[in-house]
Amino acid sequence: MNAKLKADYEAKLTEIERLKAENEAIRQRNQEASQATHQANQAAQAAYQEKLADIERIKAENAAIRNRNAKAQQEAERQNQALQAAYEAKLAEIKQIESENEAIRKRNEQAGQATNQTNQAAQAAYQEKLAEIERIKAENAAIHDRNAKARQEAERQNQQVLADYEKQHGEAAQALKDYLAKAPDNVTLDPIFSAEPATAPNGDVIKDEFTYNSADNTFVWTKQLHDWKKICW
């Protein structure tokens, strides 16, 4: 009997040791898991606090936005009321103007019937004036063309007169030179020769004068048209 109890006791001790070993293993696993869970909880707590701070920030921003929106809404309402009042005033003004325009239109319609005939007569006179203006413009164009041709012809004639006069002057100058060559050294001529003036078709007067200075034996030729002097010798 004692042997059986002892065997049972040994078996129970073995079972107890096994359970202790299992419990120790479970405790260690739980401790490791607890540490991991604690770290995860700390990270989650930090994230939670961060989220809370973010939420508070957003709430503050939302409150500021709501405040601004409320003020903006009040300002918009005030402006809308002012615009509505201005609109009502303009509408009343427009109605008054429309009423006045209607009265003016009726008066103009009545007056238009009377002035229509006057306008027709004025239009006919206007067309007549336009025709007269076109005729005058055509005449002016013809006159302008004739004047241009006349100016060209006058210029040609002026050039011809000048060329003829230059030729005569050359002949007169040569004759005077020949005369002075034969004159005594102490001869005094002041002036000794004056060519006949020549008048160009454009009204220019061409005149030569010759003056001899015996003091320095010089001969001065003054040409009136071109206003210049030349020492001949």
From TrEMBL:
Keyword Coiled coil: yes
Record's keyword annotation contains Coiled coil: yes
Domain of life, per lineage: Bacteria
UniProt keyword terms in alphabetical order: Coiled coil
Stretches of the chain forming a coiled coil according to its record: 2-182
Entry protein name: Agglutinin receptor domain protein
Organism the protein comes from: Streptococcus ictaluri 707-05
